[in-house]
Specification:
Blueprint: E1 19-30, E2 41-47, E3 53-59, H1 63-66, E4 75-79, E5 82-85, E6 97-100, E7 106-109, H2 125-130, E8 139-148, E9 152-156, E10 159-170, E11 173-180, H3 182-192, E12 200-211, E13 214-218, E14 225-228, H4 232-235
Parallel strand pairs: 3-6, 11-13
Antiparallel strand pairs: 1-2, 1-4, 2-3, 4-7, 5-6, 8-10, 8-12, 9-10, 10-11, 12-13, 12-14
Length: 242
């Protein structure tokens, strides 16, 4: 007898015997903030065949167990996990709940079950500039590259830090995006790789935050993903499902 597969939209905190089939659309490991050997956590964004997304977390003592089992872009059957409220200032999805892996969580790769829905839920640049959207949710944007600053240095807490800014254009609106840390080298490398005039740029899971007194988009460590001239088939037609 086949085991029932639950829709991600139905997942709630009433039980922990859920059984879902999802694609890992984003995966990153957060390092220890205290400099310890163990990472702080492993974070994932999961999406089912209907396009509904939910965040999942793996605490530091279980990262060793689940990190080898999960790869971004692949599809898995995941069952027996905890469910808690989706709270905080860096929410990757609008789902009311989030998944918490525990010692009894089961993960099985599904090789013959492709999930082809676009993972993007784009918000317009005009919405960011003029409508003050909730900054506690990370957002996806798309635009035409119309400018970049090159590498910049600034002082924070007595240390010299680096950043790079780019300007995106969409439907008559220009938005400055600021990137810090490891993202500086990534963006400069892309810009140096070839002619980026009128390049299409996708920024996924970014934070809305004021920069130089105006609304802007900034990276969140690990979560944010930046794509230059991405595959059109994987990007366009993206809709917000839940």
């Amino acid at each position: 007898m086949a085991i029932k597969v639950d829709d991600v939209s139905d997942v709630n905190n009433s039980k922990d015997t859920w059984n879902i089939v999802t694609k890992v659309v984003r995966l990153w490991v957060s390092p220890s903030f205290s400099g310890g050997k163990l990472p702080f956590s492993m974070e994932l964004v999961l999406m089912d065949s209907k396009g509904c997304q939910i965040h999942a977390s793996v605490r530091k003592t279980l990262v060793y167990r689940f990190h080898p089992l999960l790869t971004e872009g692949r599809v898995y059957q995941i069952s027996y996990f905890g469910v808690g409220d989706n709270l905080g200032d860096f929410r990757t999805t609008t789902h009311q709940f989030k998944i918490n892996f525990h010692i009894h969580t089961k993960v099985k790769e599904i090789g013959n079950c492709p999930i082809t829905k676009s993972p993007y839920s784009f918000i317009s640049l005009s919405e960011i500039m003029f409508n003050d959207p909730d900054p506690s949710y990370l957002i996806d944007i798309i635009g035409i590259l119309t400018g970049s600053s090159g590498e910049q240095e600034y002082e924070k807490d007595g240390k010299i830090q680096k950043r790079v800014t780019i300007e995106l254009f969409q439907d008559g609106v220009r938005l400055e995006c600021a990137f810090f840390g490891n993202y500086v080298g990534q963006i400069l490398g892309q810009l140096a790789a070839g002619d980026m005039t009128n390049a299409v740029v996708v920024v996924q899971y970014a934070k809305i935050k004021p920069f130089r007194g105006r609304p802007s988009v900034q990276n969140v460590y690990g979560a944010t993903k930046i794509l230059f001239n991405p595959d059109v088939q994987n990007v366009y037609g993206a809709t917000k499902i839940c």
